[in-house]
C-alpha cells in the first residue's frame, strides 16, 4: 500500500513534518495556527493514485486545489487555515479511503471526515492547530 505523508508550516515554528498516516501534524494547547499544508503518497508502485488538497484560508476563502505534495496555503503572511478538503484521484483511488480529523481553535478535535468532506470551519474564524490523516484500504 502507498505510504501517506503530510507536512506543513506552523506559526512561530516554521516548517513541520513530514508525518505518516495517523500521526499528528501541528500542536495542541499552544494556540498556534497552521498556515500551509502538503499531502502526498510515497511508494505507490504502479498504482495511478494522487492526492488532492484544498484549504480554506483566512481572508482568502477556498484556495485552488493542489496535488501530490504541492503546498496549499501561505508562508509569512500570518494567515490561518480554517478548513481542509482532502481526497484521492486517479484510476486506483477507488481502492482506498482517506480519513482526516482537524483540531480547531476553541473546539478541539472535530469529527472525522473522509474522501473530500470538509473538515474545519469555513465561516467560523477558527484556526486549525493540528491535523491527522489516515490512508486505509476501501471500507476499513
Brief digest:
The chain has 140 residues and is an all-beta fold.
Explain what the structure shows.
It contains no helices and 14 strands. The chain is mainly beta and 140 residues long. The strands form 3 sheets. Strands 3, 10, 11, 12 and 14 form a 5-stranded antiparallel β-sheet that branches. Strands 5, 6, 7, 9 and 13 form a 5-stranded antiparallel β-sheet that branches. Strands 2-1-4-8 form a 4-stranded antiparallel β-sheet, with no helix packed on it. The radius of gyration is 14 Å and the shape is globular.
Strand and helix layout:
Elements (H helix, E strand, L loop, with lengths): L2 E8 L3 E7 L3 E3 L7 E9 L7 E8 L3 E2 L3 E2 L4 E2 L7 E9 L6 E9 L3 E2 L3 E2 L3 E3 L7 E10 L3
Antiparallel strand pairs: 1-2, 1-4, 3-14, 4-8, 5-6, 5-7, 5-9, 9-13, 10-11, 10-12, 10-14
**End-to-end span in angstroms?**
13 Å
Give the radius of gyration.
14 Å
Structural class by helix and strand composition: mainly beta
What's the total count of β strands? 14
Mean pLDDT: 96
